[in-house]
């Protein structure tokens, strides 16, 4: 059997994942031969971890997706440092820079996206490239450039208060750069946050040293002067990081005549308008998801590997329920689903808790007991629980407030701590778990004549297991001694004191 | 029980007979079956509660007197995943390669799937110092009594521990806690492991496990900042179809933090049964010979055959693992007779309804026990054997220390030891009596020789040394050797002396919940009962404290299922249904129910468990399966 020839254009998180998944089903390449084309000279890397590189907690080697010998060990024909510049769907051939070609049975576009540069004077040079002192926050080179051109202490302006812009800003403050975020909307992360949550987040980030210019647009950048805004003010900046959104990299598809509309259009089998061409990740547009995040890309890669290897021919991609997490030290934010619904909504149940001074905000939107949207800031374990309810369609618990507050509730069994006041404990309080002895049994034993710790232990076996309740039995014994009315009736009580 | 029992045919009742009658009957039936269908038509099933001497003798009896390869034991259902992972990582499996008392010196302890407050109460003493200093971390889907003592309780969905371990390993690297020097000096294979863990950043892990990313980082921080730290696993994280990979992932975490093989820190597995450690070292396992030797290793075969005085070629090869053995009973290719020692399979095996049916399909079921367990009650012949206070023998504790248990009482008239039973059968099967000694000390002397040079080398241990009070942890390769309380301090047991990171990835439970079976079920122990409950359900105080099966469930989940606290409910999986009384607990996860596995009949939790097996350890997936919860039918209720 001749292996099916699969060519993957793009060695980013989507393409690399697809190759991994294909090799999981077909380890030796008997069914599927894989050719992978990567424009950058090094293995693909984990974009999620780039803010760690900026912050200095990880090196570049740490974020590479594969070991250097990965392609060899996994029978992958890897072409690094070349790009696809032409696609002939008729002869099923891709032309690469340098003149080589790749023939395919199935082509997968995983070309990702490119940063969108807002039309601000001075961001681009005469040739249309980013001007000196301006960098996008997108790839490993950008990270290198940020690290090289913004030594600790250099003020940095970040254009864009979305998820990636904020992660970049936090990474930079983490390594000691003063950062100002310029965001043209009145609150941060407006796609994922309501205005109240955006305000709480800004407050939390301000405490870490980030400054904000919200509702402001950058007007002009000039080296040495910094970034001028639309209100005439200037933000001091030795470096401008642009994180104002991305555009799907779909030029190859457009030029080949595939249907493209804000991304290469794909169906549930990740198929483009040409049956032999598929697309996954940021370059693709499926009706069931938003792009720009890794999770849809990985889910698409898993489905496509099922289909291309024949491991699961009925596998389909039906969209992704996206949860957005701000991944930055000390700040815990999760948002999902419909977030722009407020407590006055009549057809949905909305519960909200705000504690802006302590950086906490939580809102859940429910329909028929199911969580359809949530924003959880500053309450990590509540976020974890709510995310699982949302992901898996588990009905929310009736105690909504407890859900928003988080932290597991204690179990039903009351057990006595060492410091517990023996008098205050109900008789059913378990004192010795190992021997199932509650306070009531110890009291009964006392009344039946066990008037010392040793006697109580003999009578009930309390504290003879793990020994953890020894102190509790002791204080209970003291308390019982004190309860006894007169020394005459109980000579041991004064003898003991 | 004080007299052997025998039934004439399958439908006849068990009635008392003499030892000779019972032994003659069993030996002649076994000989017949062997004659007609070959040696593998007889199977042997042992237990982790047997002394080292009995475990050793049972393996020898199977291989020599019966000539069968079909021998395995219930430890396969217990520590086998941790054992396999330990061997892969360190080259040797000793549950705790350090004395248990060392744990009390640590300021951080991570317990994973270990509810020691109920399953091993005295052990709590060793973790309380860490708890008091804010360093006890417990990972368990339930808020167990152990978790209640913890400074930090991580509550993952059942079957997602491996993802959690990967997330924590990611946090070790991302937050700067990686021990680079230890990695370079004492380990190999980290880079490949990191490529996997790099894809499991804590926020992604949170979505799979339900454990907050911040809590994953906090747990790692506690371990990394501790002066001394231990990571200990138990059945909750091991009894999975991916159990070996899961334990490997925990060991990877320990290695990244530089814990194993360092004085005062390390990784250990909390052994379950009384002799869980020794029981897995001396040859009652399908693939193993005494001294933790491999049965397919020619040198090991030659050595052990030499001690036994038989031709190495006469020893059978590896046989079926425990569940596969049970699944094959009475099928034509599997054994037609089974001898069971120290195990109550009808209650404790996974997919228990099916296992009971396989036992029913046997031509001969023989059980040795000291109580009439549910399995004994289903047998054709039952032998009453001595219990712990009535016999001598050694046990190897969870820390690899060999303990001598000396006889304290005489057995009642009519009761014999397992060693006497094995000799009685061996003689009738044509073996010389002296090949199957009946005095534990003499058997131990032989075990010493058989284990000499093996991984679990007992050759330097003697009853005299133990009687004199020496604390001997194996390996003890010579009579002058002081034992090895702390292994791995200089080197790990692989030829290059390095510990090996294992590249493992999360796959999830074999049977995830779906629309038909929307909940996870997990099983475990309660404080009052032990294993199948065959012994503890006979103690009135214990039975009064926990008289029946129960199912712990979140009040909201109970309400949606239409069941109420205190009511009987049916918990149903693809394999069967178990009845249990509802206990509503607000600390339960909404998606999970818990059942104890100690109860018989319709209350057997193992009626629903999943026998999906780990590819390496052949451990069944006891700890997670998909179920639904509903009110129980009135007529189905237990009397």
UniProtKB/TrEMBL annotation, chain A:
Its EC number is 1.7.99.4. The lineage of its organism: Bacteria, Bacillati, Actinomycetota, Actinomycetes, Pseudonocardiales. It comes from Kutzneria viridogrisea. Its cofactor is FAD. Residues 430-474 form the BFD-like [2Fe-2S]-binding domain. This is Assimilatory nitrate reductase electron transfer subunit. GO terms for molecular function: oxidoreductase activity. InterPro entries: BFD-like_2Fe2S-bd_dom, BFD-like_2Fe2S-bd_dom_sf, FAD-bd_OxRdtase, FAD/NAD-bd_sf, FAD/NAD-binding_dom, FAD/NAD-linked_Rdtase_dimer_sf, Rubredoxin_C. The keyword ATP-binding does not apply. Residues 5-300 form the FAD/NAD(P)-binding domain.
TrEMBL record, chain B:
SUPFAM superfamilies: ADC-like (SSF50692), Formate dehydrogenase/DMSO reductase, domains 1-3 (SSF53706). It is an enzyme of class 1 (oxidoreductase). Keywords: Iron, Iron-sulfur, Metal-binding, Oxidoreductase. Its EC number is 1.7.99.4. Transmembrane segments: none annotated. GO terms for molecular function: oxidoreductase activity. Residues 519-626 form the Molybdopterin dinucleotide-binding domain. Residues 1-426 form the Molybdopterin oxidoreductase domain. InterPro entries: Asp_de-COase-like_dom_sf (IPR009010), MoPterin_dinucl-bd_dom (IPR006657), Mopterin_OxRdtase (IPR006656), Prok_molybdopt-oxidoreductase (IPR050123). This is Assimilatory nitrate reductase catalytic subunit. It comes from Kutzneria viridogrisea. The lineage of its organism: Bacteria, Bacillati, Actinomycetota, Actinomycetes, Pseudonocardiales.
């Amino acid at each position: 059997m001749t292996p099916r020839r699969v060519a993957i254009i793009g060695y980013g998180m989507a393409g690399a994942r697809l190759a991994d998944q294909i090799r999981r089903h077909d380890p030796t390449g008997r069914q599927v031969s894989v050719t992978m084309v990567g424009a950058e000279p090094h293995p693909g890397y984990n974009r999620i971890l780039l803010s760690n590189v900026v912050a200095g907690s990880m090196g570049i080697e740490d974020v590479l997706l594969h070991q250097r010998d990965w392609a060899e060990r996994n029978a992958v024909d890897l072409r690094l440092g070349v790009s696809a510049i032409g696609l002939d769907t008729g002869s099923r051939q891709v032309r690469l820079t340098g003149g080589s070609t790749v023939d395919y049975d199935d082509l997968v576009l995983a070309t990702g996206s490119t940063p969108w540069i807002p039309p601000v004077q001075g961001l681009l040079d005469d040739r249309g490239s980013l001007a000196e002192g301006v960098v996008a926050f997108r790839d490993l080179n950008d990270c290198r450039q940020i690290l090289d051109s913004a030594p600790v202490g250099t003020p940095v302006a970040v254009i864009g208060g979305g998820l990636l812009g904020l992660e970049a800003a936090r990474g930079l403050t983490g390594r000691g750069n003063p950062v100002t975020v310029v965001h043209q909307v009145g609150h941060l992360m407006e796609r994922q946050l309501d205005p109240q949550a955006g305000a709480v987040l800004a407050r939390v980030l301000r405490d870490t040293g980030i400054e904000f210019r919200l509702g402001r647009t950058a007007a002009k950048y000039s080296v040495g002067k910094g970034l001028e805004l639309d209100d005439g003010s200037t933000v001091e900046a030795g470096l401008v990081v642009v994180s104002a959104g991305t555009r799907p990299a779909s030029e190859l598809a457009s030029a080949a005549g595939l249907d493209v509309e804000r991304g290469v259009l794909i169906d549930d089998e990740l198929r483009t308008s040409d049956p032999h061409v598929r697309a996954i990740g940021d370059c693709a547009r499926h009706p069931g998801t938003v792009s720009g995040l890794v999770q849809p890309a990985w889910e698409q890669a898993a489905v496509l590997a099922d289909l291309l290897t024949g491991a699961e021919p009925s596998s389909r991609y039906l969209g992704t329920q996206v949860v957005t997490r701000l991944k930055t030290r000390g700040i815990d934010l999760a948002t999902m689903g419909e977030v722009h619904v407020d407590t006055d909504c009549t057809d949905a149940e909305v519960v909200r808790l705000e504690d802006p001074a302590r950086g906490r905000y939580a809102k859940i939107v429910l329909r028929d007991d199911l969580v359809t949207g949530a924003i959880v800031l500053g309450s990590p374990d509540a976020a974890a629980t709510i995310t699982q309810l949302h992901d898996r369609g588990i009905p929310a618990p009736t105690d909504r407030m407890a859900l928003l507050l988080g932290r597991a509730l204690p179990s039903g069994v009351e057990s006595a701590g060492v410091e517990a006041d023996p008098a205050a404990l109900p008789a059913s309080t378990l004192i010795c778990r190992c021997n199932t002895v509650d306070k009531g049994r110890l009291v009964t034993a006392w009344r039946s004549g066990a008037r010392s710790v040793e006697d109580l232990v003999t009578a009930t076996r309390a504290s003879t297991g793990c020994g953890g309740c020894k102190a509790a039995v002791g204080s209970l014994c003291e308390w019982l001694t004190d309860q006894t009315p007169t020394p005459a009736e109980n000579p041991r009580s004064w003898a003991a004191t | 029980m004080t007299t052997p029992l025998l039934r004439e045919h399958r439908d006849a009742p068990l009635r008392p007979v003499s030892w000779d009658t019972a032994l003659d009957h069993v030996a002649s039936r076994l000989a017949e079956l062997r004659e007609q269908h070959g040696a593998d038509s007889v199977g042997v099933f042992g237990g982790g509660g047997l002394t080292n001497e009995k475990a050793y003798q049972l393996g020898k009896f199977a291989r020599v007197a019966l000539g069968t390869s079909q021998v395995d034991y219930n430890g396969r259902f217990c520590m086998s995943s941790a054992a396999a992972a330990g061997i892969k990582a360190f080259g040797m499996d000793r549950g705790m390669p350090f004395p248990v008392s060392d744990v009390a010196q640590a300021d951080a302890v991570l317990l994973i799937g270990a509810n020691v407050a109920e399953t091993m109460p005295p052990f709590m003493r060793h973790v309380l110092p860490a708890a008091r200093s804010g360093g006890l971390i417990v990972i368990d889907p339930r808020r167990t009594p152990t978790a209640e003592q913890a400074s930090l309780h991580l509550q993952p969905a059942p079957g997602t521990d491996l993802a959690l371990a990967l997330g924590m390993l990611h946090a070790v690297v991302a937050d700067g806690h990686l021990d680079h020097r230890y990695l370079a000096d004492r380990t190999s294979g980290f880079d490949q492991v990191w490529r996997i863990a790099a894809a499991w950043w804590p926020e992604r892990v949170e979505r799979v496990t339900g454990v907050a990313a911040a809590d994953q980082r906090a747990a790692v921080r506690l371990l990394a900042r501790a002066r001394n730290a231990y990571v200990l696993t138990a059945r909750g994280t091991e009894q999975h179809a991916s159990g070996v990979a899961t334990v490997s992932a925990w060991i990877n975490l320990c290695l990244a933090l530089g814990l194993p093989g360092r004085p005062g820190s390390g990784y250990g597995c909390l052994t379950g049964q009384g002799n869980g450690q020794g029981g897995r070292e001396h040859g009652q396992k399908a693939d193993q010979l005494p001294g933790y030797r491999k049965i397919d290793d020619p040198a090991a075969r030659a050595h052990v055959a030499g001690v036994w005085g038989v031709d190495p070629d006469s020893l059978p090869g590896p046989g079926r693992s425990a569940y596969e053995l049970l699944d094959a009973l009475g099928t034509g290719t599997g054994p037609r007779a089974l001898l069971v020692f120290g195990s109550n399979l009808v209650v404790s095996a996974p997919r228990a309804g099916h296992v009971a049916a396989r036992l029913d399909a046997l031509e001969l079921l023989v059980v040795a026990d000291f109580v009439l367990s549910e399995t004994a009650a289903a047998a054709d012949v039952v032998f009453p054997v001595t219990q712990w206070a009535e016999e001598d023998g050694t046990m190897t504790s969870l820390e690899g220390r060999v303990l001598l248990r000396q006889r304290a009482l005489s057995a009642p008239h009519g009761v014999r030891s397992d060693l006497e039973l094995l000799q009685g059968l061996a003689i009738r099967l044509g073996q010389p009596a002296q090949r199957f000694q009946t005095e534990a000390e003499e058997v131990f002397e032989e075990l010493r020789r058989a284990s000499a040079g093996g991984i679990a080398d007992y050759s330097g241990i003697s009853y005299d040394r133990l009687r004199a009070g020496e604390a001997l942890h194996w390996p003890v390769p010579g009579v002058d050797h002081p034992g090895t309380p702390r292994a791995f301090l200089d080197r790990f047991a692989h030829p290059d002396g390095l510990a090996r990171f294992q590249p493992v990835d999360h796959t999830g439970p074999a049977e995830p919940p779906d629309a038909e079976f929307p909940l996870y079920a997990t099983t475990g122990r309660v404080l009052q009962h032990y294993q199948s409950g065959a012994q503890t359900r006979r103690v009135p105080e214990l039975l009064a404290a926990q008289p029946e099966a129960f199912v712990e469930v979140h009040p909201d989940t109970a309400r949606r299922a239409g069941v109420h606290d205190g009511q009987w409910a049916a918990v149903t999986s693809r394999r069967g249904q178990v009845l249990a009384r509802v206990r509503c607990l607000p600390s339960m996860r909404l998606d999970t129910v818990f059942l104890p596995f100690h109860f018989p009949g319709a209350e057997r939790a193992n009626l629903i468990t999943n026998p999906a097996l780990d590819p390496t350890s052949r451990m069944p997936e006891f700890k997670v399966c998909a179920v639904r919860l509903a009110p129980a039918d009135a007529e189905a209720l237990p009397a």
